Amino acid sequence: MAGNDNEDLFTETFDECDDGEQELEESSPQSDGEQSCSICNDKLHSPRLLSCLHVFCLGCLEKKKRMVENGRETIVCPKCQQETYLGRKGVHGLACDYISTNIQDMLAINSKAMVCTSCKTKEKAVARCSDCAHFLCPNCDTAHQYMRCFENHKVVSFEVLLKAKEAVPIHKPVFCETHVTEPMKFFCNTCSVTICNECVVVDHCAPEHHYERLSDAYERHKEHLHSLMGESKTKMAYCEDATNSLNNALAELQAQHDNAKGLINETFQSYKAMLEKRKDDILDELKELHSERELKIMEMFHVVEKSVERIEDASKFTQRLLEHGSPAEVLCLRQLVSTQLLNLINNTPKPDVNTTLEFVTDMDKFTSAIQTTFGHFRKQESPVGTATTTPQQESPPPPALSLVTSSVACPPSSVTSSPVSMPSSYEGELALAPLLPFTSIQEYNLSALASLAEGPSQVSTASSPTSSFTLNDLLCGDITSSTNAIKNLEALVKLGNVSLNEPDLVNGAAGPAPMMGRGSPIDGIPPALSPMNGGTYPRNSPTAILSSASSASNSVILPSVAYNNRAGAKSAQAMQVKYKFGTLGPGKGQFNSPHGFCLGSEEDVIVADTNNHRVQVFEKCGAFKFQFGIPGKEEGQLWYPRKVAVMKASGKFVVCDRGNERSRMQIFTKNGHFIKKIAIRYIDIVAGLAVSSQGHIVAVDSVSPTVFVISDNGDLLSWFDCSDHMREPSDLAINGKEYFVCDFKGHCVVVFSENGSFLRRIGCENLTNFPNGIDISDAGDVLVGDSHGNRFHVAVFNRNGEAICEFECPYVKVSRCCGLKITSEGFIVTLAKNNHHVLVLNTLYIV
């Protein structure tokens, strides 16, 4: 009989799905979310399908329909807001979701709640007839076995159905809408519809109509739907790239806004007496342009996100239809599904945005035309819109602003030296005061210092060329606690190309010679430094480095520092600079005192750009990918972000910044979109941040040495105090059930179990001096990094804490490195905070 043919076809269909197709996790027929209506939040009743392929109850859709101007009824999908036009039958004319109906029947069978549909007794059903699609009680089951009218009917018991391999082993016959008692058996290729036996005789006669059996048409149209679904999924990848582009466009727009605003204010200072009102007008114009373009980008953002949702939902439904639908079901829904997928494919939004906010000024014409020479915005009309085709080329980047020369001064550090002149891994509160311009005397002194620093540096312990220290090292470095400041100052007060390692150029100093860097001896140190403005200051007395009668805040204290000779430093293997990227500034690829970084799931370098209030993402080679974060203390904004980590499973970012509190933690998507905030009022300063293999967030507090384990939902799972075993945490790594915490002032790494029990110490003074970075290789080796002596040094230990080897980079002078990570190729990555750059170093170390 025809019913047997259909049953065999259904079985073959699901066998093919089991053998040859990879099931999507989202398309599981047992998903509770897919069997409930999102309008009434109840189980689907008479499920009907909209043109967007979302499924709702018939009764719920009846309440949602509305009349439009042309007299037609429409329904706007509550999920995606796509409009579906209704035919003359109204909501009842919408296609039925056969899969949901079959799944509900299987759920009822599984819960033993199905009653007999073949008689009026309402007894519990024990079997199902595949031909008449009725659930049978024991009496009806017996009747099917002995009555001639049920001869050749195939009855399957519930026990057999529940043991079936198919996800949906039952299917109801699909009947013709015209001849309601006839099941669909053929597919008319001429009309592209499913038809029954009566249709073949009456409305779809050969040779005018070409038709074939459902089983013959199924494979061809199944492949067509597969092809459309695959093409639509490629659009998802494009939309994800478009989302990243739009996110970068927002950040670029903000950067352009900030640059333009800075230039406006700087130009205004020169015209202040005459241009007070004009300045306000220009700033208002900037604000209006920025708001207008930001609004357009956000509108485009919304369009792209909706496209992604629609493609995901359409693909999800199509996958479920192809995996679990019978040929009749697939072909009945083919036109509807094809229409939606083609609609999504052909109407993919095109992100065409204009982020240029370039302020143009011509100060040479100031006296002749104030209104025109103060400046205006270069307008390039490129409205954000929706296109029907995917763009094939990228728009050129906006031109960079040409900023006028400005003076920058670094405020003094609020951190004082400890009684033993020990540096600290935390440099106190970040300076919030505006940067002050130099006086003329200071500018002269800086010019003299810079000219002296231009001479090539001579290092006797390295044959490779080394870069001399920069003026930024002197100005923005931690002068009160870093040995390189003394070295640089002592070098600068001498003439030209003077090396501190040449005894004939250093005038006698009493007492034993201290050690320079990682074991370079200094034969003599002059007893006093001679400032540029004249006068002599003892080495450990307050000394005005940038002398000025009007700027007392620039005076600093030079502590007495004992240069420790690192044990085994001479045997340390040299690390070559593979990549070096980043400079001081607010632009893309520039940093301002970054305090932390991590490696992403694809080993991207994610940097917490602290004083620029953002997070930047780079490839390992230094190529900029994107950035996220807008300055502010509200949720979703960033305010001095210090640490960042990545949840490898989802790609989400965990960012620790300040906000309105001492510390806060925020979660962002892999594209940089804000998800939620986690309150961490119990943490003063996050010194180390990591994510465990279970997906838990682990943070260590440097003020009160304590390790906290937090779930991704923000719940505090556990914590333990480690102050009895260490002095000041500076970084954190996790290996299995062991927590490795760097002790900055204890010159070692302290290992704890996950319950807080002390296990062991790794490293010691002269081997791991002031450690500020740690990572663990795949083989279990522990790599500990430090920048003591202004060279980045790595000590490698086995899992038991025994030293294996050492590495050192003699080619780049660094100050205050933060963190250490090892890549899959064995490259060492670190972040030089005071140098404002990232170093990727190559070693002979095999991971």
TrEMBL record:
Any Pfam family the entry gives: zf-B_box
An example Gene Ontology CC term for this record: nucleoplasm
Organism: Graphocephala atropunctata
Name used for this protein in its record: Uncharacterized protein
Annotated ranges, domain B box-type: 111-158, 171-214
InterPro entries: 6-blade_b-propeller_TolB-like, Bbox_C, NHL_repeat, TRIM45/56/19-like, Znf-RING_euk, Znf_B-box, Znf_RING, Znf_RING/FYVE/PHD
Annotated coiled-coil segments of the chain: 211-292
Keywords recorded for this protein, A-Z: Coiled coil, Metal-binding, Phosphoprotein, Repeat, Ubl conjugation pathway, Zinc, Zinc-finger
Keyword Repeat attached: yes
Chain positions of NHL repeats: 578-621, 625-671
Domain RING-type positions: 37-81
Gene Ontology molecular functions: ubiquitin protein ligase activity; zinc ion binding
Annotated segments matching region Disordered: 377-402
